[in-house]
Amino acid sequence: MSHAMPKPPRRATAPTSARDMAMLRTAPLDRFALPRLHVEPRQADGGLRVFDRPSGTHVLIYTPQRACQFQAGHRAGRWYVRSTTHVGGAPQSLDFDTARAAVEAVGRGAWTSRPTRAVGAPSTPRLRVVWHDSDARLN
Fold this sequence. Notes:
Layout: H1 17-26, E1 37-39, E2 48-52, E3 57-62, H2 67-71, E4 80-83, H3 99-108
Antiparallel strand pairs: 1-2, 2-3, 3-4
């Protein structure tokens, strides 16, 4: 004696399924465009985590907030990019005016470029001192 298992109920198809399948038969999709970058919502500290699909890497876009970052060469009010695996306080990228400019640089793949120092050039940034007339020392 064999007991036949009851068939599961058939799912109803969406009314547009037949139309969608017909459209895919006439114009199949070989590839579909994905944006190069996936930008996640802002983090608690205001930074952004960005996934660069072509390189398969995650980067952080941030503005410095800790004293050790400023001591390592970051500038206040500027935006920087670093890989999520980077350890240390020194900036990995150029500084950007806005977070959007930093995201666009990641999209171009141009965020890691660092200015090259000439041989014998000082390793710390040069400071510019502006004397006001009242502060100027005349000899």
